[in-house]
Design a protein that fits this description.
The chain is an all-alpha fold. It contains two helices and no strands. The radius of gyration is 62 Å and the shape is rod-shaped.
Length: about 150
């Protein structure tokens, strides 16, 4: 019985060792699975962070483009307003120059000469009397009326 007992004890010890090894392998497998799951979760989290960062960068670039466009539009509007103001100023100056060059001036020498010639001819006419003037007989202050003597 000694050998058989020893064999049974050895077989039981071997089975226990095999069970312990199986449990250790199973525990090792669980640890590896947990590590892989953690690594996968970290990789997914890192990917999400990269996507979020890329999205923020895209939004910043879009905002910068919009600011640049707004600045360009404002500058174009200022340039257009300045150009219009300059054009209006030049147009006004051109009109003033044209008006100065085409200004009507009275010919005073001709007017004075015509008045002197009219004065030499005697009685002149007006708009009320016409070119024949006023009859000299009607200018006498005597009693030449039909009512009086």
């Amino acid at each position: 019985m000694g050998i058989e007992t020893a064999l049974l004890i050895a077989a039981a010890a071997g089975t226990a060792a095999t069970i312990d090894q199986a449990k250790a392998a199973q525990h090792q497998g669980k640890l590896q699975a947990q590590q892989q799951a953690e690594q996968l979760a970290q990789a997914q989290q890192l990917e999400q962070q990269k996507l979020a960062q890329a999205e923020r960068l895209a939004q910043q670039q879009l905002a910068a483009q919009q600011r640049a466009q707004a600045a360009a539009i404002a500058q174009a509007q200022r340039a257009q307003a300045e150009s219009k103001a300059l054009m209006d100023k030049q147009l006004k100056a051109a009109e003033e120059n044209m008006n100065r060059s085409m200004q009507k001036r009275p010919d005073t020498a001709r007017l004075l000469d015509a008045a002197a010639q009219a004065g030499k001819s005697g009685v002149g006419g007006t708009m009320l009397t016409g070119p024949q003037g006023v009859d000299q007989a009607s200018m006498q202050l005597g009693k030449s009326t039909l009512l009086g003597a």
